Amino acid sequence: MASAKTKSAAAASASTKPEKAPKNASAKSVKPAPEKAKAHKAEKGKGGSGKPGVVARLKEYLAGVRQETKRVVWPSRDEMGKYSVAVVAMLIFFGVLIYLADTIIVPLLVAFSGLRG
Questions:
Q1: How far apart are alpha carbons 67 and 69 in whole angstroms?
Q2: Per-residue exposure over 85-117, b if at least 16 CB sit within 10 Å of its own CB, e if not
Q3: In angstroms, rounded to a whole number, what is the distance separating the alpha carbons of residues 68 and 62?
């Protein structure tokens, strides 16, 4: 009599079907394009950590900042004056609003709590 292990191994080998390889896959490994290989080597840097050094990253960042400042639409002198007046007016408005709220709320709190501020 055959043991249980032999029967299960024989059944497993009989039931498994060989898997078909994809039609597009080849037996040889695909090498990266020369451009990609060069870019990959350039990305590695000195330490082999995969990212460039601090100086290179700083130069790249500053170059990006310079490009973005060229894209900015700066306001004209007249627009800047109007915006400045609007900001100062809003600061005065909210300053007065907070002052009034403070002068009204503090006496109410003192009257309610009985404490002197």
A1: 6
A2: eeeeeeeeeeeeeeeeeeeeeeeeeeeeeeeee
A3: 10
Task: Compute the distance between CA of residue 76 and CA of residue 103 in angstroms, rounded to an integer.
Answer: 41
Cα–Cα distance, 61 to 55 (Å, whole number): 10
What pTM was estimated for this model as a whole? 0.41
Q: In this structure, are residues 50 and 44 in contact, taking their beta carbons and an 8 Å threshold?
A: yes
Q: What are 61-113's pLDDT values in tens digits?
A: 999 999 999 999 989 999 999 999 999 999 999 999 999 999 998 888 888 88
User: What is the DSSP code (8-state) at residue 45?
Assistant: -
Mean pLDDT value of segment 28-42: 56
Position 105, amino acid: I
